[in-house]
Specification:
Structural class: alpha/beta
Radius of gyration: 22 Å
Bound molecules: uridine-diphosphate-N-acetylglucosamine
CATH superfamily of the largest domain: Enolpyruvate transferase domain
Shape: globular
Oligomer: single chain
CATH architecture of the largest domain: Alpha-beta prism
Number of helices: 14
Helix content: 25-40%
């Protein structure tokens, strides 16, 4: 039993350093298996999803050496098993990145169908469409995504919907395919660019990442490299919103401010002060927030992974705000939990209509998924009294030392593992 317990009401002050981007690190680890030489990856976030993927990579035979908690060396020369399946890999989303990587390198693989957070139906038809267009045969049966290609040939692929996963997966397979692949309506997220940069540092020929047309000329093989992953824009945004909701003055360091533009814009609209530096942003908030509107969109739009955190902020802003979720259909599962904390939110279709209340009140709540869980932590920090969050294993999938970093900023939060520890905390703060 792991829980976060929070005594709200402390404003946040100080500096917090952001780690590497989970959603860049996952495909980069998968892509690292494509070389038969040692690839060194730094600025790796030490979170559960990363460790599950590394374990799966090791299980198929690749050599994995954990240099320290943020650095790993991978050598794909020793891969002997092209079936990726274990009880843990089935639960994460990013298992699908091994499909593109191993299909590109070995022309065949069978990978357990991805799990991940329950935020919508999350189909993988566009990944399949891309692989099939390149000449692969796909068979989805017995819980496995099996794919095989006699020849993998570059082609034009139009993605009917902007998809981060499909863009990256097709890009990886195409890096070692024959000839030129063009991905149209590609995702432009910073992590798509980071994966392209990583593959190029291994000798791939990828142009246009960061625009909606990516051109990949296949090469014969990929070689060793040393690479440092970009900072996590969602972790950064989460701390920025925590400072905004709890009030205070926080410098969020080791970030790329350009990647945070949509997040920053919404904080300004909500009445916070935001200062940008070369590799840091400072958020100053007196805790008095204003209503605004937000719609999630593919990058450079407002990220769906910041939507629950935004709703938590607007839940205590003056007036009526709306949050429109346009990427995933089931991303308001935190609303019932937030209602227990006093929020006044009504969901109609994909729009949450939020009537701001003066404050949240501490309650016992469940984290329904990773980002919604982080949003509930923010609510707890801003709330009056004690909040206990269950099911925090979701949060631990994507945030490294969230409680420790918040404590450094003055928050009263602890990760407890037993009823005894929980009661001890409650006694201490009451
Ligand atoms: C990734 C991120 C997730 C983030 C999301 C959007 C990882 C591990 N996860 O998820 O945190 O919320 O990007 O930024 O990096 N779609 C299809 N068919 C497909 C693929 C996607 O219809 O084959 C749809 C999805 O249902 C969704 C939209 O496209 O409506 C975007 O999904 P996508 O960008 O692929 O998200 P993920 O890669 O699953």
């Amino acid at each position: 039993m792991e829980q976060y317990v929070i005594k709200g009401g402390n404003p946040l002050y100080g500096e917090v350093e952001i780690g590497g981007a989970k959603n860049a690190a996952l495909p980069i680890l998968a892509a690292a298996t494509m070389a038969n030489e040692t690839v060194t990856i730094d600025n790796l976030p030490n979170v559960r999803d990363i460790n599950v993927l590394l374990q799966a990579i090791e299980q198929i035979g690749a050599k994995v050496e954990r240099v320290n908690e943020h650095k790993v060396k991978i050598n794909g020369a020793y891969i002997r098993d092209l079936t990726v399946d274990n009880e843990f890999i089935r639960k994460i989303r990013a298992s699908y990145y091994l499909i593109g990587a191993l299909l590109g390198k070995y022309r065949e693989t069978a990978v357990a169908l991805p799990g991940g957070c329950d935020i919508g139906s999350r189909p993988i038809d566009l990944h399949k469409k891309g692989f099939c267009a390149m000449g692969a045969d796909v068979d989805i049966s017995h819980g496995l995504f099996k794919v095989k290609a006699y020849r993998l040939i570059g082609t034009h692929i139009y993605l009917d919907k902007v998809s981060v996963g499909a863009t990256i997966n097709i890009m990886m397979a195409a890096a070692l395919a024959e000839g030129k692949t063009v991905i149209e309506n590609a995702a432009k997220e910073p992590h798509v660019v980071d994966v392209a940069n990583f593959l190029n540092s291994m000798g791939a020929n990828i142009r246009g990442a960061g625009t909606d047309v990516i051109r990949i000329v296949g090469v014969q093989k990929l070689h060793k490299t040393e690479y440092s992953i970009i900072p996590d824009q969602i972790e950064a945004g989460t701390f920025m919103f925590a400072a905004a909701a709890a009030g205070g003055d926080v410098l969020v360091t080791n970030v790329i401010p350009k990647h945070l533009e949509a997040t920053t814009a919404k904080l300004l609209e909500a009445g916070c002060e935001v200062e940008e530096f070369d590799d840091a942003v400072r958020v100053i908030s007196n805790g008095k927030l204003r209503r605004t509107q937000v719609t999630t969109l593919p990058y450079p739009g407002f990220p769906t992974d910041m939507q629950p955190q935004m709703a938590v902020l607007l839940g205590i802003a003056e007036g009526t705000s709306t949050v429109t979720e346009s990427i995933f259909e089931n991303r308001f599962r935190y609303v019932d939990e937030l209602t227990r904390m006093g929020a006044n939110i009504k969901v109609e279709s994909n729009i949450a209509i939020i009537n701001g209340v003066p404050r949240y009140t501490g309650a016992r709540v469940n984290a329904p998924d990773l980002r919604a869980g982080a949003a509930l932590v923010i609510a707890g920090l801003a709330a009056e009294g004690v909040t206990v969050i269950d099911d925090i294993h979701y949060i631990l999938r994507g945030y490294e030392n969230l409680d420790g970093k918040l404590r450094e900023l003055g928050a009263n939060i602890e990760l407890v593992t037993s009823e005894k520890e929980l009661q001890k905390f409650i006694l201490k703060v009451s």
